[in-house]
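Whether sequence alone determines local backbone shape is best considered at the level of individual chains. Part of our work consisted of pairing the sequence of a single chain with a tokenised description of its backbone. This step matters because it turns folding into a mapping between discrete strings. For completeness, the protein is quoted in full, as a sequence line and a line of structure tokens:

_____
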Amino acid sequence: MTVTAHPAAAAALTARRSGATVSRTATPIGRRTGLFLALLISVVSLMLLGLVMALSATAAPSLSGTDSAWSLFRSQAMWLGVGTVAMLVLLRVDYHRWKKLAPYGLGMTLLLLAVTAVPSIGISANGARRWLGVGPVVFQPSELAKLALVVFIADLLSRPGRHMEDTRATVAPVMLTTVAMALLLMLQPHLGAAVLIGGTAVTVLYFAGARLSHLLLIGVAGATAAALMIAYTPWRRERMLGFMNPWDDPLGNGYQTLKSLLAMASGGLDGVGLGSGRSKWGYLPYAHTDFIFAVIGEELGIAGSLFVVSLFAGIAVAGLGVALRASDRFGMLLAVGITCWITLQAALNIGAVLGVLPVVGMTLPLLSFGGTSLVTTLASTGVLLNVARQIR
């Protein structure tokens, strides 16, 4: 009886016999697992809902800036297309390739953040200098920095010989890099992004096996630094006081929080109807960006809000599941970092909309209007999905 080997297996066997090595990055590896499908369904659902809400929430700002109510929606739809292509491409690129690019990506984003702080180069809006661009093409380097930092930390902590007991080779370089990036973000200023990357770095260190005593010390130091920045910066201090009791200044620092809560309360259980919300018509500032969740709560009600929260919870659970079943340490840390970044940012945004956290200027991933945020999040999701294709 003659047994014929599968062509792929025969090729691999021939390569091994001839002394050649089979590159694991030559072709996309993996399969569509349950975790992969759970992640994909959650992300696609948020993408589609975000497109619908962009159509609803951008009409007013579009009319105030142009003669067409569709201008911002067309822009968001274009960026969604670009982000979708990026996600599909990176989904098929073996995530191990990013190890070689990690230091270059980090260096480039640090340079871009530094250039953003230069008054003659960085683009300012609403008292912040967070953008770079030429002509109509404008992007936000802080969004790219999130992915670059996650890939760098995952690469650093997964290198052979890097034991977590040796804090000088692991914890120290991670925190020095994070602090350097946070300082550049504070020059913009962007305290919310600094808090986000700090929380993400600490989470990755925890899953990498860092000592809890070290993480506690880092947490205390970070909280102390944030508290000092708030205490000694008048406008941050006023914003924090406005968050603690918005009724003390209902027309000033408490205005956004009160209008956001009013929009959520107006929605009730099933909402006032898609497109029928009134908060987006100038009553709630930045309704299509930082406060898109309030528009969802008003138009789709508690049911729609809980649906959004459940999708982010699905990303968190599936992402951590991918991390725990990743084929190697680099994939595990990469999955943890991307999952933590997306879900922590969502929590900071939703918490601000509900008035349980201070407003820190964070967008809601995959839902808020914004090209750089959308494309970067979808690209990072593509990397996470590739890790999910290769789990054990």
Summary: The first strand starts at residue 123 and ends at 125. The CA atoms of residues 38 and 53 lie 22 Å apart. The chain has 15 helices and three strands. The longest helix spans residues 292-324.
